[in-house]
Specification:
Number of helices: 3
CATH architecture of the largest domain: Roll
CATH topology of the largest domain: SH3 type barrels
Order of helices and strands: EEEEEEEEHEEEEEHH
Helix content: under 10%
Shape: elongated
Structural class: mainly beta
Number of domains: 2
Number of strands: 13
Radius of gyration: 22 Å
Oligomer: single chain
CATH superfamily of the largest domain: Bromo adjacent homology (BAH) domain
Strand content: 25-35%
Length: 198
């Protein structure tokens, strides 16, 4: 006999003050105690009458180090990627809620809490196609890059804007120290920009 399941709109996890709704982002308890919690988005809440248990269909977020490409210098510490990897999980594996912001929302936060993350890419976590390069598994395919290093913006890395050309740079890419650049009234990325300003 097939198990009966019913979709529900919200669910209070017993013994906690956590109320789940579709679209909430949650922290899922990992099997290993030294592993950070997994992050997922609740797609659906399902009451499993056969097992008398509440289940959630989740869409997983991946950390950069969990992808084929790995963590790169431009990935922020709190950056995660929305994947096309779905799963059914017991609500008992949820240890709390979190907030996944867009990069723009994240940059506007006055305080970044332990449960704040940001996402600017989607990641195709499907079966590995040998004809598809690892970098092609991300959407969007192109993003704005900055500095001489041509990397996307990392909110955890200090950058400074040239007062003439308005381009952004990492001081270290120009062989400068952050503390020296912070003392300047005006910053010029090159002698040409400095001469143009005079």
């Amino acid at each position: 006999m097939a198990q009966k399941t019913n979709r529900v709109n919200s669910y209070n996890i017993s013994g906690t003050d956590i109320t789940l709704r579709r679209g909430d982002c949650v922290l899922m308890r990992p099997a290993e105690s030294d592993t950070p919690p997994y992050v997922a988005r609740v797609e659906r809440l399902v009451a499993d009458d056969g097992n008398n248990e509440m289940m959630v269909r989740v869409r997983w977020y991946y950390r950069p180090e969990d992808t084929e490409v790995g963590r790169r210098v431009f990935h922020g510490e709190k950056e995660i990627f929305l994947s096309n990897d779905y799963d059914m999980q017991s609500t008992q594996t949820i240890q709390g809620k979190c907030v996944v912001h867009t990069l723009q929302q994240y940059l506007k936060l006055k305080y970044v809490g332990v449960d704040d993350y940001f996402c600017r890419y989607e990641y195709d976590a499907g079966e590995r196609d040998p004809d598809v390069a690892a970098g092609e598994r991300f959407t969007p395919k192109r993003v704005t890059v900055y500095c001489k290093c041509n990397n996307p913006y990392n909110p955890d890395t200090y950058m400074v804007q040239c007062d003439t050309c308005k381009s952004w740079y990492h001081p270290s890419c120009l062989d400068l120290k952050n503390e020296d650049v912070e003392k300047l009234d005006k910053f010029f990325c090159s002698r040409v920009c400095q001469e143009d300003a005079e």
